[in-house]
């Protein structure tokens, strides 16, 4: 049953425009998202894909909502995933400018138990992977480089 949700907030010393660009541009995602390159036309209903090295498909989804500098939402399907799901999971990013800081909220919904990993010393499981990715994004936007320990 797909009924679990994972939510994570982080605060980034940046602008909503720069955070938006980092979330929607493949040259940026390749830096902070374990080398994944994001591709989309950004037209609601069209595909959103993440490609690994050698252009191997890692994640595919459909764009649900696209409000520049505020909100992006898309379905999230990993082709290799063998979990039983009633519906695809959904990734939503909310961007809120707070003076010189951006509050970035990630909401990943329609999850199943196998999406989570109990071990905390790994990037496996959404509960471990998303904090690493968003910490990498924060470091990248604030310092110009990703964290050394979790570089792609």
Structural features, described:
The chain has 152 residues and is α+β, with helices and mostly antiparallel strands. It has a single domain (4-150), classed as START domain (Alpha-D-Glucose-1,6-Bisphosphate, Chain A, domain 4, 2-Layer Sandwich). It contains three helices and seven strands; from the N terminus they run βααββββββα. It has helices spanning 16-24, 26-32, 126-143, and strands at residues 4-12, 37-40, 47-51, 57-67, 71-76, 89-98, 101-111. It has a seven-stranded antiparallel sheet with strand order 1-7-6-5-4-3-2. Helix 1 (16-24) packs across helix 2. The longest helix is centred in the last third of the chain and has 18 residues, at 126-143. The protein is globular and about 45 Å long.
| Topology-level CATH name | Alpha-D-Glucose-1,6-Bisphosphate, Chain A, domain 4
The top-level CATH class is Alpha Beta
CATH superfamily: START domain
Given as residue ranges, the uncertain stretches (5+ residues, pLDDT < 50) are none
Specify the helix fraction band: 10-25%
Write down the domain tally: 1
SSE-based structural type: alpha+beta
CATH architecture identity: 2-Layer Sandwich
The helix/strand series, from N terminus to C terminus, equals EHHEEEEEEH
Features:
single chain, 152 residues, alpha+beta, seven-stranded antiparallel beta sheet
Task: Summarize the helices and strands and which ones pair or pack.
Elements: E1 4-12, H1 16-24, H2 26-32, E2 37-40, E3 47-51, E4 57-67, E5 71-76, E6 89-98, E7 101-111, H3 126-143
Antiparallel strand pairs: 1-7, 2-3, 3-4, 4-5, 5-6, 6-7
Helix pairs in contact: 1-2
């Amino acid at each position: 049953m797909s009924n679990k949700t994972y939510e994570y907030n982080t605060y980034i010393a940046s602008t909503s425009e720069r955070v938006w660009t980092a979330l929607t541009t493949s040259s940026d995602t390749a830096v902070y998202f374990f080398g994944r390159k994001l591709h989309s036309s950004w037209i609601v209903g069209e595909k959103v894909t993440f490609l690994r090295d050698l252009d191997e498909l890692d994640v595919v989804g459909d764009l649900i909502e696209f409000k520049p500098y505020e909100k992006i939402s898309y379905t999230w399907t990993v082709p290799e995933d063998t979990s039983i799901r009633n519906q695809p999971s959904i990734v939503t990013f909310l961007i809120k400018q707070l003076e010189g800081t951006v509050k970035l909220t990630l909401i990943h919904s329609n999850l199943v138990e196998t999406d989570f990993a109990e071990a905390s010393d790994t990037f496996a499981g959404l509960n471990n992977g998303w904090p690493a990715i968003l910490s990498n994004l924060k470091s990248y936007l604030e310092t110009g480089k990703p964290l050394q320990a979790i570089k792609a």
